[in-house]
Amino acid sequence: MSSAESTAVDIYASALQSDVDAAAMLNVDRSDADDLFKGDRGDMPLATRKLLAHLKRGPFLSGRRQPQMWTILLASEEHIRQHLNNEMLQLVIDYDQELAMVRQVVTEHSDVPVLLRRQKLTFIDSVMLLQLRERVLAASVEGEPAVITREDLFEYMRPFQKHVADDVKFRKRCNAAVDRLVVASVLLPLRGSEDRFEVSPILRMIFGAEEVEAVSRAYAAMAADAQAVKEPMFEDDGDAPQGQD
User: Fold this and answer.
1) What is the mean pLDDT of each run of 10 residues along the chain (245 residues)?
2) Distance CA 47, CA 69 (A)
3) Closest CA to 115 of 61, 69, 58
4) Cis peptide before 59 (omega within 30 of 0)
5) What element of type H or E holds 9?
6) How many CB atoms lie under 10 A from the CB of residue 217?
7) What pLDDT does residue 222 have?
8) How far is 109 from 124, CA to CA, in rounded Å?
9) Which of 102, 131, 181, 211 might form a disulfide with 187, Cβ 3.0–4.6 angstroms?
10) Which candidate, 147, 156, 192, places its Cα nearest to that of 174?
């Protein structure tokens, strides 16, 4: 065999091996998978699939409240990340607080599909969230859970009440906002009380320092300027908690 023919054979053999390697990569290992229905080609056990569904459904996973799911997450973290990245989603974990959540990937590509539903926040929701995040940060320094009452939140919103003549209407709006934050698992009702809550530490992950600073400046200006905040910001946005859009 000539040198040229030998080289050609080597190249052909290398190409064949590349095809074999590529096929092997596409052949997903299902040794640990559960066959849950006819034609099931999933490569995860049922418990891991439930974990993924929980993360995507949101708003977050708490190791303290869901210890079994937290254990599964840590054991299969890399696999979970790969699966989410394939759907243009990102896993965010706070190992110290044992919290995990899923975010939409931010990319320069404009045609990336958006899978996660987003919660629309009213003005009053946003102001309350800023106060709640401050409580979480202060409590974390002391190593204690952040606890707040419904009345605490009413008092925090007082600077804006001057834009709503009716005190009953003002409290109604505040109550509706609190109820929405309960549904979103930002406020966790304490046992035996309807008006005392633990503030979820997930707020530290949702709002970054830069976002908080920017929004805080805007709302501080609104509170100081009688013309900046008009009553329409407190218009009835529904008494019942709203779901995600």
Assistant:
1) 48 41 40 76 90 89 92 95 91 91 77 61 80 85 88 86 72 90 88 88 73 64 52 43 38
2) 8
3) 58
4) yes
5) helix 3-26
6) 10
7) 58
8) 33
9) 181
10) 156
Reading the block at residue 145, the tokens are 């859970």
Q: Using CA atoms, how far apart are residues 54 and 101, in angstroms rounded to an integer?
A: 9
Task: Give the amino acid at 40.
Answer: D
**91, β-bridge pairs:** 102
User: What are the tokens at 186?
Assistant: 């930002």
Distance CA(244)–CA(120), nearest Å, equals 7
- Write out 33-59 in H/E/C secondary structure: CCCCCCCCCCCCCHHHHHHHHHHHHCC
- What is the C-alpha R_g of the chain? 25
AA identity, residue 176: A
| Position 154, amino acid | F
Q: Are strands 196-199 and 187-189 parallel, antiparallel or unpaired?
A: antiparallel
pTM over 0.70, yes/no: no
Is 76 within 8 Å of 55 (Cβ atoms)? no
